[in-house]
């Protein structure tokens, strides 16, 4: 969870991002501080954390990278298939379900890995 204070602390934006949803982290080092940029697979614009102390930014960067690699001590690892169940009706035609999954994959809503996993399940029902 990242906090972005605005207007002298009168308003704050909170963005909650899971490690598994972070695609990339960049540290843009300045003279006095570092700006952290996180790219999430669900947001088009990167999350920017401005004016972070250099040492703190290095520590945060290493922790985020460990979290992305699922290497944090005590980290609870979610199942590989964490996408919401779009096709919950078991009686629907497996071919129609495959077509819907293909559209979801093509639009970027689900990953290729998630598509292949569900495809294997559906192929067993044909």
Structure description:
With 126 residues, the chain is of the alpha+beta class. The chain has 2 domains: 67 residues, no CATH class; 48 residues, no CATH class. 33% of the residues lie in helices and 25% in strands. The chain is built from 3 helices and 5 strands, in the order E-E-E-E-E-H-H-H. It has a 3-stranded antiparallel sheet with strand order 3-4-5, with helices on one face. Helix 2 runs antiparallel to helix 3. It is elongated, with a radius of gyration of 19 Å. About 6% of the residues have low confidence.
Overall number of strands: 5
**Outline:** elongated
Helix-strand string = EEEEEHHH
Biggest β-sheet strands, sense, barrel: 3 strands, antiparallel
Mean pLDDT: 78
- Provide the domain count: 2
Nutshell version of this structure?
This protein has 3 helices and 5 strands. It is an alpha+beta fold.
Task: Give the arrangement of secondary structure elements.
Blueprint: E1 2-6, E2 11-15, E3 22-29, E4 34-40, E5 47-52, H1 54-68, H2 94-106, H3 112-125
Antiparallel strand pairs: 1-2, 3-4, 4-5
Helix pairs in contact: 2-3
